[in-house]
Design goal:
- With 235 residues, the chain is α/β, with parallel strands linked by helices.
- The protein is 32% helix and 21% strand.
- It has one domain: Rossmann fold.
- The chain has helices spanning 31-43, 58-64, 68-71, 82-90, 121-140, 155-161, 197-207, 209-213; strands at residues 18-24, 46-51, 74-78, 100-105, 143-146, 164-171, 174-179, 182-183, 227-231.
- It has a nine-stranded mixed sheet with strand order 8-7-6-1-5-4-2-3-9, sandwiched between helices.
- A hairpin with a 2-residue loop joins β6 (164-171) and β7.
- The termini are far apart.
């Protein structure tokens, strides 16, 4: 796992094939969305995003995206119960194409601590969901990026199944990613840095200026939406 350097901005870790868990301190809002978009832009790839806890909402993913065109590469599937989420993960290869280079499952444990599940049912379903993600990562040789909420103690089960863990914490100099073979280099600025969705967007714009300058520029803020390929539950 390597990193690239951009003076005066945080660096991002590369995402390797297998399961990667991103842990945050709750203050570095937009870290998961930015890490996923950075990977998509670096590899000129597509991503499949199985959403939970509304992480793909326009107030997060879309506002972080440095260009509306980038979101054309992200296929979002949404669920509203544990059984719907499990079903989407079972069929996660359905919306994948040869260009798919990333699978994202934010808050992957969220649904499996629901009160309407029988004792032990959530743990069993989560284990099956993680089995499926491991299979997809191996068969497709792609990174799978997950995060957890820690709800009902299920976060530990997710961490135990992941190949690696990245941590992103907010410092007064900006967000800092750390991992087994990676550490963000952030250069000090007077007054510190406040991590916001707009901040992440500026970082991505600078990192990928060449990629974003290619192609038509007919973009409007209202057009910034990821593609929804599946929705199970309320419409």
């Amino acid at each position: 796992m390597a990193h690239t350097t951009l003076a005066d901005e945080p660096t991002f870790p590369d995402l390797d094939p297998g399961l990667t868990l991103l842990e945050t301190d709750g203050q570095a809002a937009g870290a998961l969305q930015s890490l996923a978009l950075d990977h998509v832009l670096l590899g000129d790839a597509e991503a499949v995003w199985v959403d939970a806890e509304n992480n793909a909402a326009t107030t997060s993913l879309s506002k972080v995206a440095p260009s509306p065109r980038v979101l054309d590469r992200i296929r979002v599937a949404r669920a509203f119960t544990a059984f719907q989420h499990y079903s989407l993960l079972e069929d996660v290869e359905g919306p994948m194409t040869p260009a798919t280079g990333l699978v994202v499952a934010p808050a992957v444990d969220w649904f499996y601590g629901a009160d309407d599940l029988r004792t032990g049912e959530g743990e069993t379903m989560l284990a099956g969901a993680l089995d499926r993600l491991e299979t997809v990562a191996a068969r497709r040789d792609v990174p799978v990026l997950v995060s957890t909420t820690g709800r009902a103690g299920l976060g530990e089960a997710v961490a135990g199944r992941c190949d690696r863990t990245l941590e992103c914490v907010h410092t007064r100099f900006g967000p800092r990613f750390t991992g087994e073979a990676f550490e963000t280099l952030v250069y000090e600025r007077p007054g510190g840095v406040q991590t916001t969705l707009a901040f992440w967007r500026r970082v991505l714009e600078r990192r990928h200026a060449a990629a974003l300058s290619a192609g038509p520029e007919a973009e409007t803020e209202a057009a910034v939406e990821p593609r929804e390929v599946a929705r199970v539950g309320p419409h």
